[in-house]
């Protein structure tokens, strides 16, 4: 593995229904794999709670979010962290204008999911509930082992 340097603003952008996910790094070595994303999220209806096959750590940089993890709300302020174990229902909602956070995910599947999901996300209005686009959401999530909570 060689060193990686990503400048501010650089990285591949994946527009999602809950914000812009910017891929900053994908690391694979003998100890395992993880990916790092910068997420810039506006205040909008939240994505439905969903279960991912990867664990995630959200580190809030700016703004405020309420993270709903396994049915428990967590109010997160800058400098706060939420850990979401793989297989745990979760989503987040921005409180106020916008939020920016780092999302670090285990394995190497989140980036492929974001890329696939972003291909159709441009057609999903950010000011409308995600339930309005449920058929398209389910077609993408099922390909990546992501499931809507309770579904």
From TrEMBL:
Residues 37-104 form the Cupin type-2 domain. Gene3D superfamilies: Jelly Rolls. This is Cupin domain-containing protein.
């Amino acid at each position: 593995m060689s060193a990686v340097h990503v400048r501010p603003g650089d990285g591949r952008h994946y527009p999602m229904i809950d914000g812009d996910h910017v891929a900053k790094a994908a690391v694979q070595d003998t100890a395992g794999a993880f990916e790092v994303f910068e997420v810039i999220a506006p205040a909008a209806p939240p994505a439905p709670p969903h279960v991912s096959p990867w664990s995630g750590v959200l580190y809030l940089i700016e703004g405020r979010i309420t993270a709903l993890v396994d049915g428990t709300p967590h109010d997160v302020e800058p400098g706060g962290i939420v850990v979401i174990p793989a297989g745990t229902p979760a989503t987040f909602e921005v409180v106020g204008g916008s939020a920016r956070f780092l999302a670090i995910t285990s394995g190497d599947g989140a980036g492929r999911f974001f890329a696939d999901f972003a291909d159709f996300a441009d057609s999903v209005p950010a000011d409308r509930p995600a339930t309005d686009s449920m058929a398209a959401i389910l077609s993408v999530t099922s390909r990546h082992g992501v499931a809507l909570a309770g579904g």
